[in-house]
Amino acid sequence: MSGSERVLTGIPGLEEMLNGGFPRGRVILLVGGPGTGKTIFSSQFIFSGIEQQNENGIYVSLDESQHHYLKEMSAFGWNLEKFEKEKKWIFIDASPIGDKDPKSKTERLTIGRKNFSLSNLIERILSSFKEIGAKRIAIDPITSLVFQYPDIIQRREAILKLIETLAETGATSILTIELKSSGLERNVQLEEYLAHGVIILQTIQVGNSSTRVIQIEKMREVSIDPQIRPYRITERGIEVYPKESVF
Ligand SMILES: Nc1ncnc2c1ncn2[C@@H]1O[C@H](COP(=O)(O)OP(=O)(O)OP(=O)(O)O)[C@@H](O)[C@H]1O
Ligand SMILES: [Mg+2]
Asked: 137 φ, ψ to 5°?
């Protein structure tokens, strides 16, 4: 066992699978199919960090405007607007549609277009990081960001640059990415090799019912439970059942 400092995930049951939490300052990739809870998971990590650990957070959205995002998160009782006013939370709208809310102070980024630059996003994250002294960062989802690099070498460079920049801040980060194929035969994505930790969310068929399952694929510095475990999404957010088996 190494003595690396841990960060509480805010997801009930996950600490047990991680033997204590995420390794501090690392970049964790959350891989999941549509509707598996990537946005809820990464937001729960950020929200619980502010509320319970006094760790300020940044949430970067690449697919939703702040208005829609806040509406969805309010279903879980997460009042992020209050934290925004208190300068504990910053929302970066990097969605291709942009934020149409005139009250929003966030700038629009042109991701998903040819002229998009990753440096633009990195700059924006770094300036928000300095502004509130963030300890947690979430980018959700990075899919469109990485797929604008069809060339594998350029893609690798871009991801490494993003991961290194985030790690250099000392903040603990979650990057979400869409799962391209599911089941046991799925292809491992390049990003999974480059991230420090990988967690996979899936919906699988067990008997004649669908079950939500979570698996820790890897977590550098940490001894993990590598088994597939069930999780649920409720009005309190995501909850993992570390003692239950799926099959
Ligand atoms: N209050 C709730 N109670 C139970 N389940 C909920 C609740 N709110 C949302 N969900 C579930 O959460 C899922 C959406 O979660 P989330 O938006 O985090 O997924 P995602 O992986 O980010 O999806 P996408 O691929 O669309 O970005 C929905 O499929 C829905 O079943
Ligand atoms: Mg989402």
From this structure: -135, 135
Beta bridge partners of 232: 239
Structure-token match 């801040």, residue found: 169
Q: Rounded to a whole number, what is the largest CA-CA distance in the chain?
A: 51
How far, in Å, from the CA of 202 to the mean position of ligand 2?
14
**What domains are defined for the chain?**
6-240 (3.40.50.300)
Buried b / exposed e across 5-30, counting CB within 10 Å, b at 16+? Answer: ebbbbbbbbbbebbebbbbebbbbbb
Using one digit for the tens of pLDDT, what is the confidence trace for 62-121?
Answer: 999 999 999 999 999 999 999 999 999 999 999 877 644 444 444 445 444 434 578 999
- Each residue's pLDDT tens digit, 129-169: 999 999 999 999 999 888 889 899 999 999 999 999 999 99
Record the tokens describing residue 24, joined without a space. Answer: 């501090």
Return d(Cα 7, Cα 55) in angstroms, integer: 10
Structure tokens at 41: 């998971």
Contact 22, 9 (CB under 8 A): yes
Residue 237: both structure tokens together: 């957010």
> Tokens 């697919």 — which residue?
63
Confirm whether pTM is higher than 0.85.
yes
Task: Enumerate residues lining ligand 1, CB below 6 A.
Answer: 32, 34-40, 75, 233-235
The bound ligand whose nearest atom lies closest to the alpha carbon of 72 is 1
Distance of CA 84 to the CA centre of its chain: 19
Which of the ligands is closest to the CA of residue 75? 1
Q: How far apart are CA 100 and CA 41, in angstroms?
A: 25
